[in-house]
Structure formats: C-alpha cells, structure tokens
Specification:
With 250 residues, this protein is of the alpha/beta class. The protein is built from 8 helices and 14 strands.
C-alpha cells in the first residue's frame, strides 16, 4: 500500500498544511481518509480530481469533512462528460444532511446523494476494493471512527480524532504503520475523551506493538517536536511527525 499525507494539520490549516486528509492506494484503487479544510486543493497535487474510488470520513467535524462541499461542486457540475457517478462515501450517520447544510444551497435536498453514495459507518469489517477494512467507534464528542486497512499481508491504522480508548488499541494491534492523532500537549491539556497527547499516542503504539508511528492532527498552536519527544519516551519504535506531501510505502 502507498500512503500519501495530503493534509495533517489539526483544527484549522497551518501555513504548511491543509487539515486532515490521507490517500491510500493499492492495485490501482484509491481511498481517501477524510477531506478537511484545504485538502481538495492539495489532493490535486497527487491525483486527478476524479480519480478517487471511495472516501472515508472519520467524523463530521469541519476539519475532517468540509472540503466535501467543494468536491460536490466538482462532481455535480463537471463540465466535461456530464455529472459524475456517485462515489461511495463511508461516514457516520447524518453525513448527507450535515454536508447539505454546510453547502447551504444545493439544487435539491437530495443533490448530495446524486454524486455521493453515503454508506453509514458502524463498528465492523468489510471489503472495499483490494482492502480489508475494519472500523471501530472511538472516543470523541461526536460519533467518530478509527480505521484499520489491510492488503497483501500489510496493514495500517488511522485513529481519526479520539481520546484514549481500548478500541484504538484493537485497531492498531500489530499494524505496520500507525497514523495517530496527537493534538494535545502532555501536562497541559487534560480533557478526557476528546484528543490524545503525544505521550498517549506513543503508549497506544507501544501497547499495540506497531511497526512505525506517525503523529498527525497537530494544531498550529501545538509544539509537534515536544509531542514527538513525549511519544518516543514511551514507544521505542520508529516515530515521526506527519508532513504534508510525505509518502509511505506500507
């Protein structure tokens, strides 16, 4: 599998990165994990606008899904070849209504579903293209999911947004690459069931025995290097900060 970091900033875009968005490719199939603020523009640096095969939205906070409104425009009003076929969008319940409300003026109440085939997420396992997908509900103020993706004997997991929870341990167990949020600073913010700090992300990686830890969703006001040091204090495997444009072969 090939993982490309399209955007990795948390809460709002930084000067260096769009918000959360990650492209996973294998056997010609392209799955996008989240499409936060600024991600649609950055995505076009890596693939064509209409090259996606499916989209996973971990939850419906704007920094993970709001550029779906722009993508609706691109797919609904495409000038060449007519309107795009509906692409599968795996998202929590209410995604269609949320995006329709955010867009504010779709041609009809059902316009979003004409180009997005919304499929409601729950905890479970299913096949998608060449991938085996497992999703688990994680700890966040809104319904949110982490995801594990397997293909050809390799695996990666993405936390989405979450606080400390057993479900994240299960998703990450034994994966080759763990893409894990680290929004908070250890010893500074302490809000249960909202976000992880670097030390907590590292502890999840250590418990799961993951092969590589990549910290992501770090807001512009958070010191990423401190979070990385905190993660390395409890996890002794390879660990680094996600950077926009970074590519990993998993």
């Amino acid at each position: 599998m090939k993982l490309t970091v399209v955007g990795c900033s948390g809460s709002f875009p930084s000067a260096e990165s769009a918000c959360s968005s990650y492209l996973v490719e294998a056997d010609g199939f392209r799955l996008l994990l989240d499409m936060g603020n600024g991600a649609l523009g950055e995505l076009q640096r890596h693939i064509g606008l209409y090259d996606l095969d499916a989209i996973f939205l971990s939850h419906l906070h704007a920094d993970h899904c709001i550029d779906m409104c722009g993508y609706f425009v691109a797919r609904y009003y495409r000038h060449e070849g007519g309107r795009c076929d509906a692409i599968p969008v795996y998202a929590p319940e209410g995604a269609e209504q949320r995006l329709t409300t955010a867009y504010a003026d779709t041609p009809s109440p059902s316009s979003m579903s004409e180009v997005f085939d919304f499929r409601t997420l729950g905890s479970g396992t299913f096949e998608l293209g060449p991938f085996t997908i497992r999703t688990e509900k994680v700890c966040h103020p809104v319904e949110a999911y982490g995801i594990r993706i397997e293909h050809g004997g390799r695996s990666l997991a993405y936390s989405g947004d979450t606080g400390v929870c057993d479900e994240l341990d299960e998703l990450a167990r034994g994966v080759d690459l763990f893409l894990c949020e680290a929004s908070f600073t250890h010893g500074k913010e302490d809000i249960p069931e909202l976000h992880l700090n670097g030390r907590e992300a590292g502890a999840h990686a250590a418990r799961g025995g993951v092969g590589r830890l990549v910290l992501t969703h770090i807001p512009p006001w958070t010191d990423g290097e401190r979070n990385l040091a905190d993660a390395r204090a409890v996890y002794d495997g390879p660990a680094e900060l996600a950077k926009a444009g970074a590519v990993y072969e998993v």
